[in-house]
Amino acid sequence: MRLQDCHNIADFRRMAKTRLPYPVFHYIDGAADDEVTKDRNTSAYDQCDLVPDVLAGVEEIDLTTRVMGHDIALPLFLSPTALQRLFHWQGERAVAAAAQKFNTWFGISSLATVSIEEIGESITTPKLFQLYIHKDKGLNRMMIERCQAAKFDALALTVDTIVAGNRERCLRTGFTSPPRLTPRSAISFASHPGWTLNYLLREKFHLPNLDTHVAEGSNVAISVADYFNTMLDQSMNWSDAANIREQWGGTFCLKGIMSAADARRAVEIGADAIMVSNHGGRQLDGSRSPFDQLREIVDTVGGEIEIICDGGIRRGTHVLKALSAGATACSGGRLYLYALAAAGQAGVERSLGNLQAEIARGMKLMGKTRIDQLSEANLRWR
Ligand code: FNR
User: Is residue 279 annotated as part of the catalytic site, yes or no?
Assistant: First the structure.
């Protein structure tokens, strides 16, 4: 399969599957328990139909929207995801460069495989750092200070991951970071020599944003579940979130809000934005989808805080539906991760280009020239 054969995210997923050793592919593709929520995050968009307006003179359209104080050219941004240099040797460098090219937000994970400082220097477009709250308060403080020094534009605190979701595909494949050699995984690595050679020959893989605190540990193979369950602070509460916002002092977002009541609390602690998200179905299976929860949240806090609809997006029309339902913008992970795994930066750019074209075409077919013209009037629920 070649890059030019990838016309949508399902194509990129197929290509990624052929390129990656199976434990790595299933780490990206998998989710919690029976993966009901992961699937519903996407299928929820089919419960609602678009109603276009016609003869609207749509020659010139403008996809610009303002998110967390920055004008972005695409109403869709790149959610933070861990371990990207495992998926392709270019990792976060490629994803950040592609985000810059499309002038949209890039999110870097606490568990990124390039440093906060490198990303801070490499792109001028808006960048957010995703923070997990660790038991080790010094580690949290150190990461916030590094983001301040590197002039990050926003901090997103992930609140849906106090324990690891039950990701059974990872249990079956024995996925660890760095990857562990077992008789079965060895066969998969050997049968993907391109990936394996790149992995072995490039700079040593590690987690630079945790380094000083987990210096010994960062090159020891651990499962992501072990990491979450041992390192993260399960006692975290709203006052901790408010403290983190204060320490940071800049644009602040809560990632993983699903209820209208929590959206209200986010407003009360002074957050600038929420990402309505269930972590791509990787945490609480059986959770409602972000799109299904969106209207309730918009009805409760719309206009008081920015509302990002995160997860499940596989088509430009999904973005148009979320924007019509009142989202400020959308975001996603797998929509660029499959493409990164398939073809590095060229893959991410092609995937974003496809989505941009789908959004632009959809806008024209909807009879809209600007994002703020999309509204509930263009939606019907089944
Ligand atoms: C994630 N996500 C995630 N979220 C986060 O806050 N910190 C992280 O380190 C990660 N890592 C991560 C790795 C992988 C492989 C995936 C697929 C996801 C969740 C991510 O930010 C986002 O919420 C989901 O990916 C959204 O769902 P979709 O777009 O993948 O369907």
Answer: yes
276 found inside a domain: yes
What's the confidence (pLDDT) of residue 176? 86
Query: What pLDDT, in 10s, does the model give residues 124-143?
Result: 999 999 999 999 999 999 99
Query: How many domains does the structure of the chain reveal?
Result: 1
Give me the chain's average pLDDT, please: 95
pLDDT digits (tens, 9 = 90+) for 38-69: 999 999 999 999 999 999 999 999 999 999 99
Residues annotated in a binding site for FMN: 80-82, 109, 130, 158, 255, 277, 310-314, 333-334
The answer to the question of residue 381 being in a domain is no
DSSP codes of every residue in 252-309: EEEEEE-SHHHHHHHHHTT-SEEEE--GGGTS-TTPPPHHHHHHHHHHHHBTTBEEEE
Query: Is 99 inside any structural domain?
Result: yes
Q: Which residues are annotated as a binding site for glyoxylate?
A: 27, 132, 167, 279, 282
